[in-house]
């Protein structure tokens, strides 16, 4: 493997989990954040994730100790980036902050270091707008929880070189990720667009009184969600069309969906009051019906999710 030294620049929720991902794949990881308190938080999160991997027997004692040994924490920018061949930027989702982070990184990093940005939806071209070397900056958008979700969406900015993109793809692949490269920049990339489309209709069904928050969640989990964990909309369609495959599905069943599309939500801002009046009480009610094993609060729920993801990743041959 070419890349041995990686830096996570900004180690909140996403930066810490990237750190764990990189550590279990054997590279040296420097974790940078603004001050000692932030680094202490990051260390606690990273320790909890590594503990989880040990509990799930993904790491044995020796591998766990080796991961701990390869993690270095610092709030000194120069120290953080000077040896890195790949820098994953995970600062706040704010264009001015991202631009200033790039400036800071470029002051001290190696001339040929690649910079991947975790941005959820900002344009890489804008993030790299004032960079000395915009050609080495790529979008590398992960999914939460980053250490357990293989997807990384790669985006080229106006000035990103093909060489940097290819190197980033190869690096992420070595880190166990499943890279998907966008052919062009678009807001929200691939999966956040799909996610908000599904969410909009879920919220709409609740707002119209068609079903409760709990029932729409249940319908997704025990219906399409189970399939989506294994295959995407096109392969689902291939099987859904029987002998005729996706062509039959689209040609013969597709037209009947016109009336549904016409009736579906088209709003572009979350309706006022949805969070306070529907989502929050709906989630509270849903959690009441769960068990300690399946998660009655955020912490239990995240643990239950992570255990399930490990099983699914093993099924996919990804762990
Ligand atoms: N939360 C998600 O589900 C998610 C998923 C995918 C991508 N992202 C993206 O990842 C990035 C980080 O998100 P997060 O949820 O980890 O946020 P976060 O607030 O948890 O972490 C941001 C970190 O950046 C640090 N920071 C602030 N200013 C900085 C600076 N100038 N230099 C370096 N570090 C600085 C903060 O101290 C903090 O630790 C964002 O761009 C976000 O859009 C988030």
TrEMBL record:
Q: Which InterPro entries match?
A: 3-OHacyl-CoA_DH_NAD-bd (IPR006176), 3HC_DH_C (IPR006108), 6-PGluconate_DH-like_C_sf (IPR008927), 6PGD_dom2 (IPR013328), NAD(P)-bd_dom_sf (IPR036291)
Q: In which pathway does it act?
A: Lipid metabolism; butanoate metabolism
What is one GO biological process annotated to this record? fatty acid metabolic process
Q: List the Pfam families hit by this protein, alphabetically.
A: 3HCDH (PF00725), 3HCDH_N (PF02737)
Q: Which keywords fit this entry according to its UniProt record?
A: Oxidoreductase
**Keyword Aminoacyl-tRNA synthetase part of the UniProt annotation:** no
Q: Which residues form the 3-hydroxyacyl-CoA dehydrogenase C-terminal domain?
A: 188-268
Domain 3-hydroxyacyl-CoA dehydrogenase NAD binding: from-to ranges: 5-185
- Give the GO molecular function terms: NAD+ binding; oxidoreductase activity, acting on the CH-OH group of donors, NAD or NADP as acceptor
**Family, similarity comment:** Belongs to the 3-hydroxyacyl-CoA dehydrogenase family.
PANTHER family given in the database record: 3-HYDROXYACYL-COA DEHYDROGENASE FAMILY PROTEIN, 3-HYDROXYBUTYRYL-COA DEHYDROGENASE
Q: What is this protein called?
A: 3-hydroxyacyl-CoA dehydrogenase
Identify the species of origin: Papillibacter cinnamivorans DSM 12816
């Amino acid at each position: 493997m070419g890349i041995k030294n990686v830096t996570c620049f900004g180690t909140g929720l996403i930066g810490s989990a990237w750190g764990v991902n990189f550590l279990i794949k054997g590279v040296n990881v420097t974790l940078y954040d603004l001050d000692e308190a932030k680094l202490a938080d990051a260390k606690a999160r990273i320790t909890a994730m590594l503990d989880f991997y040990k509990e799930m027997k993904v790491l044995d004692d020796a591998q766990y100790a080796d991961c701990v040994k390869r993690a270095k924490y610092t709030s000194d920018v120069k120290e953080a980036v000077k040896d890195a061949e790949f820098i994953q930027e995970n600062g706040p989702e704010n264009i001015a902050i991202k631009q200033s982070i790039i400036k800071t990184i470029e002051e001290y990093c190696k001339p040929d270091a690649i910079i991947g940005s975790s941005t959820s939806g900002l344009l890489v071209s804008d993030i790299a707008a004032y960079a000395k070397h915009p050609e080495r900056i790529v979008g590398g958008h992960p999914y939460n929880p980053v250490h357990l979700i293989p997807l990384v969406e790669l985006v080229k900015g106006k000035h990103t070189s093909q060489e940097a993109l290819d190197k980033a793809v190869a690096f992420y692949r070595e880190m166990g990720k499943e890279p998907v490269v966008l052919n062009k920049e678009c807001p929200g990339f691939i999966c956040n667009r799909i996610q908000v489309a599904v969410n909009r209709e879920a919220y709409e069904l609740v707002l119209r009184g068609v079903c409760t928050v709990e029932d729409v969640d249940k319908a997704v989990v025990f219906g399409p969600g189970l399939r989506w964990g294994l295959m995407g909309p096109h392969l689902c369609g291939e099987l859904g069309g029987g002998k005729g495959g996706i062509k039959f599905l689209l040609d013969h069943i597709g037209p009947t969906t016109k009336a549904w599309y016409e009736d579906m939500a088209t709003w572009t801002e979350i309706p006022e009051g949805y969070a306070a009046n529907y989502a929050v009480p709906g989630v509270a009610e849903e959690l009441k019906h769960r068990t300690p094993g399946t998660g009655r609060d955020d912490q239990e729920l995240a643990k239950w999710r992570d255990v399930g993801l490990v099983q699914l990743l093993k099924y996919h041959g990804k762990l």
